Each structure stands twice: as C-alpha cells, then as structure tokens.
C-alpha cells in the first residue's frame, strides 16, 4: 500500500495498464498511476510518499517502451491542469503536459518565431524538456529559458536551462523529478510565415515518417557523423521482424508494433538491429527510446 494524504484531489489508480497510454500500445501496468489535480496536489502526494518508492513521469509515451512486466512504484501523468500555454512578449510559459503542437500553435498566435520545430514532436513539454527534443536543426536547449520541477520529495524548484546539462537528446534531470512548467523563448515573427514553416514541417514528416502507426519515434540516436536510419538501411534491416514488431519500411530508424507485438518483441528487434549494424558498419547504436520497467519472466 502507498501512504497518500487524505486531502488528495487527483486520481490514484492501482495496477493501471500503460499500453493504452503509450504510442507503441504495448507493455505492462504501473503499480500505481497518479494523475494530480494540480501542482500543490502533486507536491503533497510526493512529500508523503515513502522515499523508497520509485517515481516516473509519463507524457504521451511517444518515446517509450514500457516493458511487459510493468513499472514499479508510481507513474505520474500530468493532465489538463498542466496543459496551458501563455505568452508574454517573445516568451511562452508552458505547462508540463502541453503538447508540442499546442506550444507551436500558441507561439504562432502570439507572433513568436523559432518554436516551429516543436510542431513535429508529438510529445509533451515534460518529455521534450527532459529528452532535449529537436528537429530540423533546432533543439529544446536552444529555446529553453528555465524549467519548473517538482522534486521527488515534493518541493517546487525553478532551474535555469544552464543547470540541465544538455547534450544531444539528453538532460541531467533526475528520475523522479517532474517537469510541471517551462519557459521557452523565441523572437518576434510574422504569423503567416510561422504558419507556413509549421505546414512545411508537418508535410515533411508526413512524407518521411510512419505517423499513423504504433511507434516510438526515432529508435536510435544519430551517431556523429552518421545517420542512424542510413546505418540501419545499409545493414539490410528495413522490414526486419521479431514477433509482431517490425522495422518501418518508410523510415528505417522507426520500429512499429504492426501485429500485436509485446514490448519484449519490440526491444528484441531493436537489439537485433543493433547487432546487424555493428557487424555491418562497426558502429554501436545507442537507444534514443527510453526503455522502462520490468522484463516479464
Ligand atoms: C511519430 C514520432 C515522431 C517523433 N519525432 C521526434 C522528433 O522529431 N524529435 C524528437 O526529439 N523526438 C521525436 N519523437 C520522440 C518523442 O516525441 C519525444 O522524445 C518527446 O519529447 C517525448 O515526449 P513524451 O511527452 O511523449 O514523453 P514520454 O515518451 O512519455 O517520456 C519520455 C521520457 O521523458 C520523461 N518525461 C515525460 N514527461 C515528463 C515530465 N513531465 N517531467 C519529467 N520527465 C518527463 C519520461 O519519464 C521518459 O523518460 C517522435 C516520436 C514519434 C512517435
């Protein structure tokens, strides 16, 4: 059992299936799923929680393999209360649960340029701040002013972007730290030009990525100076299958749950691709997709 304050206003669910909440639509259940009513509710919950219980944040699960044995401890999912975006000059204040499309659309409406790249990242502010998400030559590290988090022991802290130790698709936010808001800065721009750039990005992604499938985005980081998709393609892995999982024919750095895959199939396919690429090119690919939880015995 968990110790939760009586005053809790959010929703706490035991044995909550996570497959419906992630893009791959595969994987096990969270021991507990907590959907806080607001930041105070989250703080009170974490402050009362046994420090030994692991805590993990979940966004839209667009870069995640949840293993079949489920996730130990508490998974925190931010709902509507964390989805707001407001602007002040060329700076946007975004809730940790706001989507990339909501942020880029709000920036357009406010005449703020430079955040168009977020149009193509189908995750939340919390996810892309943690992952240093990026596309088309820009990444979150280029636009983040500061981030507000709730620490594992339930305190609210605001940290400047420089404290996040950003590198390619990586920050040093600790496990159990939940991003509840971020301020992103662009520059004044013309609304029609911003919309045109967002449309260009949307069309480019439609043409090159399997958007309407059960996937997890880019599987492997691009190992400088190579492109991961090219190494996977050259190793002959396009269309390769394990169980119900396959390497996308459209974009070879995307794995797809095409035939009722288990999370174990998806992860095993990723490892098989890594082995083929290592043999073919000598490059050891590094996972970009986060793999979490317990392997099912
Ligand atoms: C079709 C498709 C295209 C994609 N294209 C891109 C792309 O162009 N560029 C790119 O960078 N990524 C891309 N991705 C990957 C993905 O969208 C990003 O990594 C995104 O930032 C993940 O956000 P999320 O909210 O879904 O996070 P999740 O997948 O739910 O979680 C990812 C990680 O972030 C952590 N996390 C989530 N929310 C929070 C929070 N509130 N506080 C702290 N940590 C949190 C999780 O614990 C986990 O470690 C793509 C994915 C798909 C499916």
How would you sum up this structure, described in words?
- With 297 residues, the chain is α+β, with helices and mostly antiparallel strands.
- The chain is built from 6 helices and 19 strands.
- The protein has helices at 39-48, 100-109, 125-131, 191-208, 228-234, 263-281; strands at 11-17, 29-35, 55-58, 64-66, 71-77, 85-88, 91-95, 112-113, 134-135, 138-139, 144-150, 156-160, 178-185, 187-188, 215-218, 241-242, 245-247, 254-257, 290-292.
- The strands form 6 sheets. Strands 6-7-13-11-12 form a 5-stranded antiparallel beta sheet. A 4-stranded mixed beta sheet has the order 1-2-5-3, with no helix packed on it. Strands 15-18-17-16 form a 4-stranded antiparallel beta sheet.
- A hairpin with a 2-residue loop joins strand 6 and strand 7 (91-95).
- Helix 2 (100-109) runs antiparallel to helix 4.
- The chain binds flavin-adenine dinucleotide.
Count of helix runs: 6
Helix and strand element order: EEHEEEEEHEHEEEEEEHEHEEEHE
Helix content: 10-25%
Do you know the CATH architecture of the largest domain?
Answer: 2-Layer Sandwich
Q: Which molecules are bound besides the chains?
A: flavin-adenine dinucleotide
What percent strand? Answer: 25-35%
Largest sheet: 5 strands, antiparallel
């Amino acid at each position: 059992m968990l110790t939760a304050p009586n005053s809790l206003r959010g929703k706490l669910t035991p044995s909550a299936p996570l497959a419906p909440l992630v893009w791959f639509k595969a994987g096990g259940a969270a021991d507990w799923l907590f959907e806080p009513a607001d930041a105070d509710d989250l703080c009170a919950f974490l402050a009362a929680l046994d420090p030994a219980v692991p805590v993990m944040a979940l966004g839209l699960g667009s870069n995640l393999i949840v293993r079949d044995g489920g996730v130990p401890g508490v998974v925190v999912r931010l709902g509507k209360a964390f989805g707001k975006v407001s602007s002040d000059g060329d700076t946007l204040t975004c809730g940790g649960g706001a989507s990339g499309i909501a942020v880029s659309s709000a920036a357009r409406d406010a005449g703020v340029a430079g955040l168009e790249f977020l149009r193509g990242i189908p995750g939340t502010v919390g996810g892309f701040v943690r992952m240093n998400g990026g596309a088309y030559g820009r990444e979150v590290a280029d636009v983040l002013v500061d981030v507000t988090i709730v620490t594992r022991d339930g305190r609210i802290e605001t940290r400047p972007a420089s404290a996040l130790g950003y590198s390619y698709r990586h920050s040093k936010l600790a496990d159990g730290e939940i991003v509840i808001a971020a301020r992103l800065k662009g520059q004044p721009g013309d609304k029609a030009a911003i919309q045109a750039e967002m449309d260009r990005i949307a069309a480019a992604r439609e043409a090159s990525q399997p958007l309407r499938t059960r996937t997890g985005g880019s599987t492997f980081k691009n190992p400088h100076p190579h492109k991961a998709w090219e190494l996977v393609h050259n190793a002959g892995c396009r269309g390769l299958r394990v169980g119900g999982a396959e390497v996308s024919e459209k974009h070879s750095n995307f794995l797809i749950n095409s035939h009722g895959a288990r999370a174990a199939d998806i992860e095993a396919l990723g490892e098989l691709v890594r082995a083929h690429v290592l043999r073919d090119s000598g490059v050891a690919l590094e996972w970009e997709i986060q793999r979490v939880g317990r392997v099912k015995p």
